Predict the 3D structure of the following.
Amino acid sequence: MAEFYADREKKESDFVEMDDDDLIICRCEEITKGEIRKSIYDGLVTMNEIKRFLRPGMGLCQGTTCTRNIKMILAKELGVSIDKIDEPTPRAPMRPITLGEYGNEKE
């Protein structure tokens, strides 16, 4: 883990909205730049924390279109190089299924 993770406190400055905070970063889950920035100010400092809290990268594209943009936002807000930001842990896509499908039963 990188050394900047040691300081887990919220950012000392208050969250200030920017003009482009309404920009959609994750199209699958409709997550904006402002939502990502606000979560960082609330104390989320890893890709996995942001992924668990806001769900970017969990939609149809599985993060292929938004992960790099989220990493850039995270690096900028934390004041670190993008190379210091870890990749999110990949997970298999999940969707709800009926018990009949689970039991391999046909109607």
Observations:
- The chain has four helices and two strands.
- Residues 67-78 form the longest helix (12 residues).
